[in-house]
Design brief:
Elements: H1 3-16, E1 20-23, E2 35-39, E3 43-49, H2 58-69, E4 74-77, H3 83-91
Parallel strand pairs: 3-4
Antiparallel strand pairs: 1-2, 2-3
The structure holds magnesium ion.
Magnesium ion (MG) is lined by residues 3, 34, 48-50.
Keywords: Hydrolase, Nuclease
GO molecular function, one term: nuclease activity
Protein name: VRR-NUC domain-containing protein
């Protein structure tokens, strides 16, 4: 399962819930998660997409840790089957 395919499914699923999954690129700060997921009522999370079974790079792991330490939820998704559960979790956060 390709990362791009999973990413497309995430973007569509978030849109279906009335939100947006904006691409996140931060010039000068490599390794940040791929998408910022914004859902109704101020719910948000960062999502790193990976091809199925692919591991995070060390810098990606570090960025996620930094964001979590700041109190922001971060998810790693490597399968389309995880998307529904992740969105539910963000919505109920
Ligand atoms: Mg990625």
């Amino acid at each position: 399962m390709l990362e791009k395919y999973i990413e497309k499914k995430l973007v569509q699923a978030v849109k279906n819930m009335g939100g947006m999954a904006a691409k996140f690129v931060s010039p000068g700060l490599d390794g940040v998660p791929d998408r910022i997921v914004l859902l109704p009522n101020g719910k948000m999370a960062f999502v790193e997409l990976k091809a199925k079974g692919k591991k995070l790079r060390p810098l990606q792991r570090r960025r996620i840790k930094q964001l979590r330490n700041l109190g922001f939820p971060c998810y790693v998704v490597d399968d389309t089957e995880q998307i529904g559960g992740v969105i539910d979790e963000i919505l109920s956060s």
